[in-house]
Write a structure and sequence with these properties.
TATA-Binding Protein, alpha+beta
């Protein structure tokens, strides 16, 4: 199920564990030659300081050829770029895939539809990793 919050964050449900969703995302990004700038292991860092947190990973990725024109048109958009996908399990073990809605970023930074097209692929990538069963990878 897809839900969009008031703050422009899209949440997708996934039936798969967070680690499996993460591996699928990384494989897609590699296949598309999209740069992965960082994978932040929030739950791992929490464990390192003696705190418990459900499996939570933030993947920061992008393509400078696509993102730079947005930042040139609206320098503050660098606050939201590169693109990010959050993969997080809740207390019941359900996994959510979350990202900033490109339409929200368009409004936030007054971007043209053409520029928003540069980042629209995040919607398809997120939908794919949330919905695709592991057996069909």
């Amino acid at each position: 199920m897809k839900t969009t919050g008031k703050k422009g964050i899209v949440h997708l449900d996934s039936a798969r564990p967070a680690q499996e969703v993460l591996q699928h995302l990384l494989a897609i990004l590699q296949a598309k030659a999209i740069t992965v700038f960082a994978v932040i292991d929030h739950s791992g860092e929490a464990a390192r300081v003696g705190m418990e947190m459900h499996d939570t990973k933030l993947v920061i990725f992008g393509n400078p050829k696509a993102g730079t024109p947005l930042m040139l048109a609206a320098p503050d958009s660098a606050l939201d770029l590169p693109l990010k996908i959050l993969i997080a399990e809740d207390a019941n073990g359900a996994t959510k895939v979350s990202y900033n809605d490109p339409a929200y970023l368009q409004t936030r930074y007054d971007l043209t539809p053409e520029l928003v097209g540069n980042i629209a692929a995040i919607e398809q990538i997120a939908a794919t990793i949330a919905a695709t069963p592991a057996s069909s990878r």
